[in-house]
Specification:
The protein is α+β, with helices and mostly antiparallel strands and 196 residues long. The chain has one domain. Helices cover 32% and strands 24% of the residues. The chain contains 5 helices and 8 strands. The chain has helices spanning 3-7, 24-35, 53-66, 96-115, 164-174, and strands at residues 37-47, 77-81, 87-92, 119-128, 140-145, 150-154, 156-157, 161-162. The strands form 2 sheets. It has a 6-stranded antiparallel sheet. A two-stranded antiparallel ribbon has the order 7-8. β2 and β3 form a beta hairpin. The longest helix has 20 residues, at 96-115. 30% of the residues are buried.
Length: 196
């Protein structure tokens, strides 16, 4: 960053560190032990879709490779569009390490094919243990911000409200496992996540 960039308040964006996604396996263990949360078996990658054959070919490559040789994987990689026009590629797996690996693969494939600027975030779903469901504990999502290379917890409640108290507690629990986004203004609510 040059002198004039600093003077005018322009900052250089943090480059994505996709290998940080693999640290979600550590976060999973902490969430189970400290907070009684289990993975839902779903994760999603959100991006701005582009028009054109090149982008369509990249999406096709992702779908084909993630389902390659696994007949039981039919329907385990799906695509949807949210109300804001963003596309989600959702992956399902009971094996959390496989879920993390597939999520990393989707991000890396889009990035390697020149679509990195279109990537927004990835999200991993967690649910409370059945025994704690009556205690008011809500579903939890750990969100990875592609352009910042950081994570934050998101705990939605009904009526497009969020449980910030739980989010801040989870932040403290996970600070040794994943790189937590320090700027709370970047902890965007993502309503209608397609991970239920």
């Amino acid at each position: 960053m040059g002198f004039f960039d600093a003077l005018l308040g322009r900052t250089k964006p943090v480059s994505a560190n996709l290998d940080r996604i693999f640290r979600m396996t550590n976060a999973k263990l902490t969430l189970e032990a400290q907070e009684s949360y289990l993975p839902t078996g779903k994760a999603g990658v959100c991006f701005r879709p582009m028009v054109g054959n090149s982008f369509a070919n990249t999406e096709k490559e992702i779908n084909e490779l993630l389902n390659l040789g696994d007949e039981s994987a039919a329907g385990r990689v799906t695509q949807s569009e949210d109300e804001y026009g963003f596309r989600w590629i959702t992956v399902q797996s009971d094996d959390f390490e496989e879920l993390v690996t597939r999520t990393h693969y989707i991000n890396a494939t889009l990035n390697d094919n020149g679509w990195g600027p279109q990537l927004l975030c990835s999200a991993f779903g967690f649910k409370p243990l059945q025994s704690n469901a009556s205690s008011g504990i809500r579903d939890l999502y750990i969100v990875y911000l592609y352009k910042r290379g950081t994570f934050y917890p998101f705990v939605p409640e009904s009526g497009e409200k969020r449980n910030t108290e739980t989010e801040l507690r989870i932040k403290e629990e996970l600070k040794e496992d994943i790189v937590i986004e320090k700027d709370l203004s970047q902890w965007f609510p993502i309503w209608g996540l397609p991970l239920r």
